[in-house]
Each structure stands twice: as C-alpha cells, then as structure tokens.
C-alpha cells in the first residue's frame, strides 16, 4: 500500500504479536457571513492564503467491485486499511464468530481493545475460550456515523491465547488504558489478523485489506473528536453544509437538506437531499491534509468563506466540479432518521 502521508507515531509499545502471513470541548462554530453583499474580510489580510484562488476539488464516494489503491486515493479518502484501524480504535464491542465442536457457527458479543498494530484483544470466559482457541475465527466490528451510516470491518484470523508473561503484561496495560480497569490475564485472548474486509455502509460491497497493510496503517488523527465536530456543525451550521454541496458539486438541482456524516484528515462525507427527496452522498476533500482539530476547523472556515463568495458571485468559478454521485437507494430509512 502506498501511504498518502507519513504515519503518525503511536505512543503505545510495539505489538507483542508476530506479523500474520496472510477532548476537549472546544466549540466548532463556522463564522456567520454578513447579510450585506460587502464581505468583511476584503479589507483584512486573507486568513486562508491561496484558497480563494484555487478552491478544493470534490471527490465523490463511489463503491466499485474491485477498486485499486490508486482509485481509492483519487477519491480524496483514506485507504481502507486506515479506515479499518480507525473503526477498531473507536469501537469497544464486536462479535466473535467461531465453529462449535459439532460444527455450528456461533457469534457472541465481546468487549475488546487493540494493541499498537491493531490486533484485537478480547476478554473471554473459559466456556467460550476452550471451544474456540486456536481455531479459525472472524471478528466483526461496526461504527455508526451520524445515525445514518454504519461503517464496518471484519477480521479473519485465529483466536490465540498468549502465554508469555511479558506479552500478557503488555496486553493488560493496553486493556487498562482502554477501559480504565485491570483484567485477569487468564481471560485475555487475541485474534491474529490474517486479512480484513472493510465495508463503508450496510448493503455495500467491501474492500479486502491484507494483514501487512492493516498493521502498517495508522488510525485517523481526528478520530477522537470527529463525532463532536460533525454534531456541532450539523446543529449550528447547516446552511454551510448545504452551501458546500451547491458550490463544490456539479448538480442540476438545488440541495434542500444536508448533514455531515464523518470527517477525517483528508476531508469529509456529506449526505444530502434534493427537493424530490432523492438521497445522495458525496465526498468533499480539504484543500490540504490536516493533522489535528485546529487544522480541520481552519479548513472548514476557509471553505465556508470561499463557498459564500462563489454563491454570491464575488468569486469566479475557477474549478471543476465533481460530477459523480452516490445515490442512496433505501432512502426511506434515512429520511425517517433525518
């Protein structure tokens, strides 16, 4: 996998498992544009250098049968391996599936943490572990985004029981850091990652991620405050989100409603509605990659300012708009949620 940027340095110790072979309450309020046509920032030094000259292009979220890594990168989105690492970092409950002694598939919900390479660490009781240990297993994790999208990943591997005292000590430290309490070393198990299926939403095709890609990827740096950011934007700045769609996307209709779904270091996803109640989803990248909450807020503010200028013809349309849309077919479910 060709990384899009330098991976963040983790503060956790290196993974004790061998490589498999197969916040703060900072308010995010976008600046309200003045009702007069005279822009207040024209008399001031531009706080978004270069942005008013070359606005960001939009890339649309499209699910293809077998996308290549280069195609995924051109969408302005993190690679599936990075998305998977982010899901595993944010979630704390998953479903472990194995075969019982008589051949029946069985899935159980369990709490889990992950080590620095993303290996799932599970806390199991004896009745479950004796049946499943050293057997092929899958571990399914879901992350709901804004109440309308469910990103998920499924790890395929083998359920193993660590025995090395030093390894167990490290795993206990990982568990306590995640949940805030100690766990009995006899209850700790791990799922070795052979490969992983990452799916953007329910009912969509997925992308297979190799063990090496997954372990080398880093979780998104905005993950710990992404949900709070989009909640505040959807609550206080809905006009800006709608304007993003009308300005940065090539549409033959006006957007009647929109909500932000998720934000990461490369951009954000928006779901929007037409006046005919059709539902679409679009990916809008940031003008440049961001590394923290401050950078994301700055990019949002600059893009909001530029979109306001373009909408009121204070700025020429000097960029190519995105033309592909991902239409959400089961719109009834999402309209009910919205």
From TrEMBL:
Question: From the record, what ranges are coiled-coil?
Answer: none
Q: Name one GO cellular component term.
A: chloroplast
Q: Which organism is it from?
A: Cuscuta epithymum
Superkingdom in the source lineage:
Eukaryota
Write down the Pfam families for this protein, in alphabetical order.
DUF2470
Protein name from the UniProt record: DUF2470 domain-containing protein
* PANTHER family, alphabetized: CREG1 PROTEIN (PTHR13343), GLUTAMYL-TRNA REDUCTASE-BINDING PROTEIN, CHLOROPLASTIC (PTHR13343:SF22)
The DUF2470 domain is annotated at 227-300
């Amino acid at each position: 996998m060709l990384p899009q940027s330098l991976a963040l340095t983790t503060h956790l110790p290196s993974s004790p498992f061998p490589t498999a072979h197969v916040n703060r309450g900072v308010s995010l309020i976008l600046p309200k544009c003045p009702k007069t046509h005279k822009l207040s920032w024209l008399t001031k030094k531009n706080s978004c250098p270069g942005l008013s000259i070359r606005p960001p292009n939009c890339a649309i979220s499209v699910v293809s049968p077998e996308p290549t890594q280069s195609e995924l990168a051109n969408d302005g989105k993190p690679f599936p391996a990075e998305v998977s690492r982010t899901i595993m970092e944010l979630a704390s409950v998953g479903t472990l599936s194995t075969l019982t002694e008589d051949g029946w598939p069985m899935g159980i919900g369990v709490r889990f943490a992950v080590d620095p390479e993303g290996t799932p660490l599970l806390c199991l009781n004896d009745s479950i572990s004796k049946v499943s240990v050293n057997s092929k297993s899958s571990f399914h994790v879901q992350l709901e985004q804004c109440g309308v999208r469910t990103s998920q990943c499924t790890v395929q591997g083998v359920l193993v029981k660590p025995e090395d005292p030093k390894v167990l000590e490290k795993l206990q430290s990982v568990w306590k850091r995640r949940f805030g309490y100690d766990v009995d070393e006899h209850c700790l198990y791990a799922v070795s990652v052979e490969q992983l299926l990452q799916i953007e939403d329910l009912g969509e095709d997925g992308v297979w991620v190799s063990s090496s890609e997954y372990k080398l990827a880093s979780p998104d740096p905005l993950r710990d405050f992404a949900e709070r950011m989009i909640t505040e934007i959807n609550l206080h700045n809905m006009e800006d989100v709608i304007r993003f769609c009308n300005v940065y996307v090539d549409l033959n209709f006006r957007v009647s409603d929109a909500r932000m779904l998720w934000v990461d270091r490369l951009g954000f996803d928006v779901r929007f509605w037409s006046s005919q109640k059709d539902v679409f989803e679009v990916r809008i990248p940031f003008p440049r990659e961001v590394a923290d909450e401050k950078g994301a807020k700055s990019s949002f503010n600059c893009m909001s300012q530029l979109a306001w200028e373009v909408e009121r013809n204070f700025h020429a349309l000097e960029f190519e708009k995105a033309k592909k849309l991902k239409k959400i077919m089961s719109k009834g479910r999402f309209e009910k949620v919205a």
